[in-house]
Amino acid sequence: MKKREWSCLAIVLCILILTTSLHPVWAAVEGSGPAYANGAETEDMDKGEIREEKPETEEISENDLKASGEENRNTGPEEQEIPGDMPKEQKEAEEKTEPSVTEGQITEETKGEKSTEEDSEENNREKEAVLEKIAGPDGPCFSIQSNLGRFQRSVDNGSRLQVNSVRFDKFYGDVGLGSYDEPQLGMGIKYIDHDNETPDADGKWRYVYCLNFKKSSPTGQDMTYQGGWTSRKIAYCLYYGAMFWKQPCRYAKYSTGDWQLDYFVTQTAIHVLNGEFSLSGAFRQIDRSSQATTGEKALAKDRINKLVNDANDGGNYASFTQDGWFDASAQATFSVTTPSNFAGDTGGYATGYSTPTFKTAYDLDMKEQITSFNVSVPGGVSVQKKDNKTYSDFRLYVKTAQYKLWQLTGKTVTATVKATAPKWWGGGIYTAPSGSEYQDCVMWTYTTAGGSFTKTASFDKKIPKKTFTLNIQKKDAETGEALTGAVFSLWAYDGATYSKKLGTFTDKGSGKYTYIGIDYTKTKDGWFLIKEDKPPKDYEPEYVLYNNADKENYQKYGGREVQLTADGFTFDGVPDATIFKDNPMHPKANITIKKTDADTGELLEGAEFKVYEWDSSANAYKKNALCTMKYDQDTKRYITEKPVEWTDSNSGRFRIVETKLPEGYQCPWSKEIEVKEKDTVTIELDALNYPERNLTIEKKIKVDEITWAHGDPTFLFAVEGTDRNGKKHSYHRAIEFTQDYVTKNSVDGFVTLSTVIHGIPAGEYQVEEGAPVMRYILTDVAAVSSNISIVKREVEDVNGFMKIEADVVADLRGMDGEVTFENHKTRYDKLSHNSMVINRIR
């Protein structure tokens, strides 16, 4: 820059410093470079031409630097004036880092006092100290307590809004203030401080764009809305370009994929469309940049060119008015998601949350512009918001008592949602405090000058009509035992009597009777009548009546009244009204047993059954049988010659035991019964017998491994298990290969010999090979029948053969079993003989 220009600037600075010495303000210009003492930092200063002399400050650690500050340490410093109260720690940091610049420091002599290297180091320290304080939304400036924008709802223009900034100087030009054809492209990324505290902003900061690149940046200033609005070209950039902090251009066509570069694209396009500098001049300055890559330069120019051209294209303004307004009502759409159904919640029932969606041109979400959001629901339903945003997600809530009442008849809850927004949106122009030299700014906002518009959405949620289940019990009036076999019916009330039979209760057993699907609307005022159409056999036909109300019901209607309410069933003054008691007759029972083969179902003879009676005093069955059942040739059944009878002593409990089994069967059958029916009944029982089982164990060895001088190969087996009745059994067998047998029965070099264990009671048994035979090891076990399960484990390699251990289980409950054990000889040393003697118990 020429020396004359610097002299003029120095004089201006000195005057401004003197007029503002009591309240020094530092503000970052849209360009880069050092700041003047009055805060009027300019965009065209060469980075190397002027520097500030600053007193020493405390060193700022690397850990204290925020990410955005670290990314931009090669750019000019920027600082904000902080309004309102601040925490003590913040104020102390401010005092330590705020520079003090005097007239004498900004001179050519001062400029030449230090070497270029020293100058660069000092500038870097100053930049880092300032950037630390304005590092963006994560920086310490956001711990400052401020009411600016905090209590706004929709993101409106407001009256006073403070601007903050972080540096982005990839395209800073060494052109001083710059000109129309050689603009200064150094700039900060500006946003509204505390905008994120506006509930409807949903944690976002609006970007701020400057309208005069030659003036100072308003960083740290309270900007005031002046009622002015930009042209629709600039409004176009604001709507489709980068609108919120750390978010790219809202229309992908203009986005570079880098939110910082997208801000630069939008700001540059606004300067061009505002007539501040030429598009070609901006492109030349971009090409001159030493801090941006070739790809970033090309990408920035491409997106700026598209945004500028589209903004100049009148065909792109279907939603814009001629004087610059964006008519939001033209393409706005509003909807809410249909929530999940009502479900139990604290103190009541609630739906899932509904989320509103408010979109305008090109399907861009603009919920933050909603100024009114109303959900209309029927009485008895309340609306619960998820947070404090105007357009908050919401759910429907019904208290338990009301919900249950609506369940009696069913209820459709219709929710109608109305969202209201200002009709005209655009770029509102903001100015700095009176008398300042800061740039005018523009950001996306709205005005109510053109009125508002309303969009409506609705959905239905059903509280389904609930049907109810009524459970009653039938008991013996004397013993309290549950009774089955009764028949109950349910009747509907017509206002005078119970004239319509709705259906019959289901006997669920164990004295429980159930009627499912009782509908409140099928009768008058929820009144029903329970009638006992038939008592259990050998019981009195009239159930026991509890009190006068019960007697009156029975005499008048022939049953017991019950009313269905929101809280369930209530009875007309009758205690224990769901229990119906009958007086009994003494029960008797004839016992009949069908004896069959468990495998084939064939009827069997030759068994013997005895009946034992319970002794209540001894709490056990009597040792002597009450009777022995006889076999009836006509019916092929075992029967009692006379009924067994319930008494106070036996309580109706009897045990039938099979004391003799048919030949070829084991596992005797037994059964306990209770005689409770109030009449002589026949109890028919099925007694299964399980045939004895056979287990075949085979031993397989290789013929050429036999050395007869060692003796006959002999193998031992043990079989142990329990039968179906839980009784334990144990069997042992031996298999001995003789020379004669081997000679006659070898096949393909192997010989197999088996042993059969006959007469095993049906059950589960473990089969294992006994003590190992000299020189032989177990190498394999194979199931011949499907009911043999085997788990094998390799133990060790012995002379080329893998020795194994095996768990073998034979399931002989339903069939015979067969299994093969294979052994190999692994040793041939020395001569010895096997010898075995088998003793049999007679």
From TrEMBL:
Domain SpaA-like prealbumin fold: 469-540, 590-685
Record lineage: Bacteria, Bacillati, Bacillota, Clostridia, Lachnospirales
Top-level division of the source organism's lineage: Bacteria
Name of the featured protein: Prealbumin-like fold domain-containing protein
InterPro entries: Ig-like_fold, SpaA_PFL_dom_1, Thioester_dom
Signal peptide: 1-27
Biased composition (Basic and acidic residues): 45-54, 63-73, 86-98, 108-127
Keywords for this protein: Signal
Organism field: Blautia hominis
